[in-house]
Amino acid sequence: MSKKRKTKKKIRLSKFTYFVISLDILVVIALVIIYTPVVSFKNFWIPTAMTTMSHKYLAYMLYSEKSVNKVMNENYIIGVNEKVNLDDIVIDTNSSNKRYTSKYEKEMFQKDPDNDVYKIIRLEEDNFKGYLTVIYDPSDVELAVPKNLGKYGQSVAKLCVENDGLVGINGGGFEDLDGWGNGSTPYGSIIKDGKLIWTHPGGSGALIGFTKDHKMYLTSDPAQDAIKEGMYDAVEFGPFLIVNGKVATIKGDGGWGRAPRTVIAQRKDGVVLFLSIEGRLPGYSIGATMNEIIEILLRYKAYNAANLDGGASATMAVNGKLYNRPSAGREYGGRSVSNAWIVTNKNNKKVPNGSLSKKTQNN
User: Fold this and answer.
1) Model's pTM, two decimal places?
2) What does the H/E/C string look like for the chain?
3) Over the stretch 216-256, which tens digit does the pLDDT of each residue have?
């Protein structure tokens, strides 16, 4: 009996030893990943943490201030230093005459049955998933803001419902103290119907929007000057990723890390693109870098493009319901935001049954 007991004891000790050794190996691997310059974890972790509103502390939990500053100084974006040439945008809403120059254009312009307003394309890449919404007529795109702007925000889905929107994505940023911001206080300026309806410190100085004739306009001029230049609807965020077909220079990952993204763009033919990337969902979608975003935009021939608020705010709604998988607030239908870009049906085109278009429902 004593022999058997000794044997069992040895086996137990052996299993425990293997466990400890395995644990030590995992710790060593983790330390190598975190602190070895050859491994890219540092360049992934620091920019991703530093571009959040409320979780910058995560960068300093693993690295010194010197290391954080060094990485951020090696990852940055140099924008295209020129004005948007609105004459380059020649709006052509007759997609039946399009000649496909790539499989991506074919994907865009082969419309869904009974839908002449938009098409949603599912994106599945190595590190992320998301959606690209193709809006055929730029006159169907407009800015929606909460009724009580400055007091509280609303989800993208609610903003769609209240403004007869078929599809919507979040727009500019807002105060997000400790990650509990409710979209009540937008950063920077908001232009709606050719009027400056909001201005608040903390904006990026980059205005993203459309002129009255539905051409996407990007400018760093003050809001009142932008209105004189023709800006009709706009929010403040950035950076600008593509201007007049020229791509921003991105060093490293641009300093924005890998995260959920929201982007708005326009092609030379006037077609508007809403890009919504899911992220911070391990095992499903990690998120996209700015370089990856630009690669997708170029596939679909974006001519002007700008980054909108991302992270937990990156939400997309279709027919009054949350459509994507945001990294937070999914159980509430998405976070409350301060504005949204929505797709309407101003010209009463064909849309699927059950859509939110009042004009369609009335016919």
Assistant:
1) 0.84
2) CHHHHHHHHHHHHHHHHHHHHHHHHHHHHHHHHHHCCCCCHHHHHHHHHHCCCCCCHHHHHHCCHHHHHHHHHHCEEECCCCCCCHHHCCCCCCHHHCCCCCHHHHHHHCCCCCCCCEEEEEEECCCCEEEEEEECCHHHEEEECCCCCCCCCECHHHHHHHCCCCEEEECCCECCHHHCCCCCCECEEEEECCEEEEEECCCCCCEEEEECCCCEEEECCCHHHHHHCCEEEEEECCCEEEECCEECEEECCCCCCCECEEEEEECCCCCEEEEEEECCECCCECCECHHHHHHHHHHCCCCEEEECCCHHHCCEEECCEECCCCCCCHHHCCCCECCEEEECCCCCCCCCCCCCCHHHHCC
3) 999 999 999 999 999 999 999 999 999 999 999 998 878 88
